[in-house]
Every structure is written in structure tokens, then in C-alpha cells.
Amino acid sequence: MDRTTLDVYDAHAAQYAQDWLDQPSPDDMYALLEQHFAPGPTADVGCGAGRDTAWLAAHGFDARGYDASAALLAEARRRHPALRFEQAVLPELAGVPAGAFRNVLCETVIMHLEPAEALASAARLAGLLMPGGTLYLSWRVNAATSQRDARGRLYTVLDGAHVRAALGDPIDVLDEHETVSESSGKRVHRLIVRKG
């Protein structure tokens, strides 16, 4: 994980947590999860303050959240004390078991890593899936070059073909498109794949 980006999230965790709650609900993403995810163990990687982990749990998924930011995890545990949250850093995700999940959600996280680490993260996320499992992966679509926002968070430019290739085989693409998120109002690239 980009150290500067992680430091920003740790320093402003409470504000980001509230900002995400104040945004409109990401109903467009949730509709895709309802369509493509199946009952079973579900990982929310880059869970932040736990909003989407809580939605997954409320909709019958055996969900647990993982994040690199200790401060965001503290917000998640405070807001959702009945749910499970653990610290794990992309791309390694040390301690997160491979092949253990029916579903993996990673919503707008990998663009915070340098390109090589973002692709390594995509491969590791696919490796979390059991056979027949589904990965929902998205990232913010940026300008032509990687950049940092006013606080210093990294936004790396990613190419969908390179991300797909990093996932390895056998992977079936269920859906891939760019859209403006109903929640953030930002343009995102969404990729949903199933492991063979």
C-alpha cells in the first residue's frame, strides 16, 4: 500500500468514515453484488469504515472486512461491533487465506497502489477465491497520468486489459464497464469475474 495514502486515511479516518456514510448509498454496486455474488464466505478487501461489509452481512453473506488502515478499522469496529474486521495490507494480504472465499469485494482500492503493486493485488484477490467464486473489483478512472489529491492520496492510472491479465486463468469475465458511481459521483471501472 502506498505509505502516504495510508497515512492520510489513518490521520483522517473519522472524517472519511462520515463522508462515506453521508454519500448516497451505492445502490448500483449493490445491485451487481446481488446479481453475481452467491451465499458463502465473503471478503470485503479495503473495507474502510465497514459500510459495505455491513450491507453484505445484512443481505445474508458471511462477510468479514479487511483494511490496511488501523484507524479506519477502529471506525468499522465502533460502528459495526457485531462484524469481523481484520488488518491486512495489499498486495500481500498476510493472514488472509487463499481459496477460502465464495465472494471477494474490492471497491475503489487498487488505484491507491503503484501500478505493479496494483496488478499484484489483483492476482492476490483472485487467489482468495474458491473454484466458482466471484470477484468484484473496481478502481477510480483518472486522468492520463497518475496523480495525488490535495491530501496526498495516490490515484494510479490502470488499464483494464492489464488488470484482467493479472487475474490469471481460469477466469470468466461476467461484466466489465465504466460508469459514474451513484455513491461517490466519480467515474469508476468495474470488473466482475468468476474463477473456473
Describe the fold and architecture:
With 196 residues, this protein is of the alpha/beta class. Helix content is 35%, strand content 29%. The chain has 7 helices and 9 strands; from the N terminus they run H-H-H-E-H-E-H-E-E-H-E-E-E-H-E-E. The strands form 2 sheets. It has a 7-stranded mixed sheet, sandwiched between helices. A hairpin with a 6-residue loop joins strand 8 and strand 9. Helix 6 packs across helix 7 (160-167). The longest helix is centred in the middle third of the chain and has 13 residues, at 115-127. The two termini are 28 Å apart. 43% of the residues are buried. The model has no long low-confidence stretch (mean pLDDT 97).
Query: Which oligomeric form is depicted?
Result: single chain
The stretches of 5 or more residues where confidence is low (pLDDT under 50) are none
Structural class: alpha/beta
Strand content: 25-35%
The sequence of SSEs as H and E is HHHEHEHEEHEEEHEE
Helical amount: 25-40%
Distance between the termini: 28 Å
Mean pLDDT: 97
Spatial ordering of strands, largest sheet: 3-2-1-4-5-9-8
Summed up, the helix count is 7
Largest sheet: 7 strands, mixed
Globally, the shape reads globular
Number of strands: 9
Rg (CA only):
15 Å
